[in-house]
Amino acid sequence: MLVSLIAALVAALCYGVASVMQAIAVREASTRAGLTGVDPGLVPRLLHQWRFVASVAIDTLGFLAQLIALQRLPLFAVQAIVAANLAVIAVLASLVIGVSLSWREWLAVTGVVAGVGLLGSSAGAEGAHQAGAVFKIALIVATAVLGLCGLIAARLPDPARTLVLGTVAGLGYGVLGVAARVLTGFEPLTLIRDPAAYAVVAGGLISFLFYTTALEGGSVTVATAAVVLAETLPPALIGVIFLGDTTRHGLAPVAVIGFVIAVASALALARFGEAGQPASGHQAGDGTSHPTGHSGQQATASG
Predict the structure, then answer these.
(1) Which of 9, 147, 153, 221 keeps 20 to 30 A from 162, CA to CA?
(2) Angle CA(292)–CA(297)–CA(301) in degrees, nearest 5?
(3) CA–CA dist 172, 136 (Å, integer)
(4) Measured between alpha carbons, how far is 223 from 211 in angstroms, rounded to an integer?
């Protein structure tokens, strides 16, 4: 259990560091002013940037750590801890690029730590229920539906566009987490035959594509908040209802409180959804740095 908890924390750290690098790469690669639809040239441009390539490697390490965590911890704990990468980003932004955090944001960072601690102390072992082929195929169908919804959402006017794209991306990350949890094994031949493996890949791809699209021209805070909610709540319910996830005996209230605190605190840090330009920012009255991104939103690092 301890190893899995450490692995979940490592995953959050890796995802946080990788997100900072990806956000800088997205800002440099974006060439669009009036945004409609999905930019098909964004990913090829990103592949020419060393930050993006390095971030993919770090993301891969984070995903491997998440897989280890899912071997022993329930989905509700792992997904909430992974969402804590926003706290990692906030602290990195404060230490590395000099962004000034308000007392509310430091309180949110503390809340993430406290919520994760409560989850770690109350989470039971992963559920014993095994997912069948129908469940795994349903994950693939859900991913296809999300892809279609994302393409439609990309043509909506803001603010609906950013909100829906963020929600689609978050649900995609949720599918990735659920699919990773129900993988039959990790041998190459086993993965090739396992529908869940394809859901993992598809969920990751659509999540990255639509979240990046949302950040290209929408509100960072709206997009990131939507991702946090969509990647934590549905997988948590699926884990409890369909996969038998539980808490330690008598500690269900502690787990619920920890989950709520961790997710709410992550939401409070939602502005750390994209790399900004702190040099052009100024100090606000509440002590928060307000760097201006290409969309005119407050931003610092990608979530």
Answers:
(1) 9
(2) 75
(3) 14
(4) 7
Q: Which two tokens stand for residue 28?
A: 């440099």
Tens-digit pLDDT profile for residues 61-87: 999 999 999 888 899 999 999 988 889
| pLDDT of amino acid 128 | 55
**What are the structure tokens assigned to 73, written together?**
């911890």
Q: Are 174 and 235 in contact (CB under 8 A)?
A: yes
**What does the pLDDT read at residue 298?**
34
- CA distances, 290 to each of 90, 265, 298 (Å): 13, 20, 5
pLDDT tens figures, 261-290: 999 999 999 888 764 444 333 333 343 333
DSSP letter string, 102-140:
PHHHHHHHHHHHHHHHHHHHHB-PPP-PPP-HHHHHHHH
Domain boundaries of the chain, sorted by first residue:
2-280
pTM value?
0.81
Q: Which two tokens stand for residue 168?
A: 């689609």
